[in-house]
Amino acid sequence: xxxxxxxxxTILLADxxxxxxxxxxxxxxxxxxxxxxxxxxxxxxxxxxxxxxxLALLDVVMPYADGFAVCREIKACADTCLLPVVLVxxxxxxxxxxxxxxxxxxxxxxxxxxxxxxxxxxxSLLRIKHYTDELENAETVLCSLALSIEAKDPYTQGHCDRLxxxxxxxxxxxxxxxxxxxxxxxxxxxxxxxxxAVPEDILLKPGPLTPDERRIMEQHPVVGARICAPLRxxxxxxxxxxxxxxxxxxxxxxxGLKGDQIPLTARVLQVVDIYDALTTDRPYRRxxxxxxxxxxxxxxxRRGWRDTDLIDAWARLLPTLLAQKQQWAKGxxx
Length: 334
Fold this sequence. Notes:
Elements: E1 10-14, H1 18-30, E2 34-38, H2 41-50, E3 55-59, H3 67-76, E4 85-89, H4 94-103, E5 107-110, H5 115-151, H6 159-173, H7 178-190, H8 200-203, H9 211-217, H10 220-228, H11 238-243, H12 264-278, H13 290-302, H14 308-333
Parallel strand pairs: 1-2, 1-3, 3-4, 4-5
């Protein structure tokens, strides 16, 4: 039963048999849940558009759209892909279960549904959803904090969003797997979150930093990695935050890593981070052109600081990205 004072979780129940709907509704409502009951797949999909649903119980055999189709659509949407879906079926053959798994179903119940099994499975999946929601909320707070740090400097406006797009594009171009692309998308937003510990007079100083100021600034990757460490969903983001200021020859910070000791994801973010900084106007200099920025990156590679292969891949990718950017700008202006 939901805890006293908390809003009851909302369960969508979709079944074309009225007696089954009535029995399941009664069981769930007695246990303290709010139930939205519908009789076919089309109504189920409409309910997802109209209501905030916490869990779905879907009959497999329904008019208009069966349970498999509804489950597939729920799991294909970014806003609902983590929502628990239970397929309720009288069909016990192995192929139906395999098809349900392929559609993304989280669990299965066989008709007739027993009260104890129904409530046990619903409560178990809702506990998992609660933990997932807490992780999403924590990620949202971190991203908001990172963007608030960026907002302190008007010259870095949009930097985090651009890095998120750029790093994923470069990762895709060199064939990195999806989990690493997701990590880079997140890292683009939060890579400098450790600057929350850097005083504003250092963070916004227009001229060169003193040695003491530089030592403080060079701790921000360590602080940022520490902030994100408790989030297990950020386990692939953590090394990007900590190591994106390392150099291939070991002269970077905070750990002086060399060459392949620096994770590839951190090197990817590093290339696009430097490119974006070079092409952005600052109070003390104009932004460089794309060609000028690439040449400066190649000069740093010749000094042993940067990954030459990644710079070459970025240079090959840039014309396509810049053309897309121009198209987006025209579309926005139109």
